[in-house]
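idk why but the lab printer keeps eating my pages so im just putting this in chat instead. protein + zinc ion:
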Amino acid sequence: MNPFPREGQWYKGNLHMHTTFSDGDLDLASAIAFYKERGYDFVSVTDHRKTTDAERFTTETFLTIPGTELDCWDHEGNEYHIVGVGVRPFDQDPTIRSGQGLIDQILDHGGVAIIAHPYWLGLERPAIQKLKGAIGLEVYNSGCMDCGKALSDVHWDDLLHHGYYTFGVATDDTHRYTYDGAVGWVMVRAAELTQESIMDALRAGHFYSSQGPELYDIRVEDGWIHVETSDVARIAFVSNRGRGWSVWAKPGETINKASIQHWTDGYCRIEAIDTQGRKAWSQPIWFNASR
Ligand SMILES: [Zn+2]
Ligand SMILES: [Zn+2]
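predcted complex ->
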């Protein structure tokens, strides 16, 4: 699952964005141009409850992946938003009244499902834990900054601690293309810039999420985890309960590597935090033979 030693290249992408085909402020062409101009390699346009056709904007160096965002309330009063990436075009079945039903509709159309902004929705572990088939949840959603609930890392760790293995995905959920544009993204390690290759990498967890810092290498060998990053203020090893550890730069300085001796059960995920407080999140390393 570790993407770092794998053959391939890193591709930068936004997996969650809206256009004037739903409630976004930019039309499709302008929304695509926004990300192209900012150096992204791919985007998935995920308008609400439908699939917007963006294929004509795919070029040799820029990929558009068809997507959608489905939503519903279930009979227990939980609201779910599920992002679907890499789907065959479809409209949401309005009769669906469960988070699992939304995931299943995305899977039935060939996509990968991502549990969107759990903090913003007030979704707690019992409502998430019963979902099957999503690759991950949004650990960070730029659009949810507007109400101060962009970061769902506590939700993620709560799930991981209780054995629900899932990836962390940073997205923009772009509506305004101002404060919510080009703030949170994924870096995907893929063989080539094609939908099939990016989708394979997403399913396998061959990606990390970021607001700015870069992860250059993560190696697990001889009982140690070695991490190399861009220049940051702190590298954190986050695990079950209080078992994690941080390596700090001295005040006014930065670091770009850290190593710790790891434990042999549970999980460890790595965060790199730069001097402006921006984060990068690795996927969890799971110290359990069954994973
Ligand atoms: Zn949403
Ligand atoms: Zn959205």
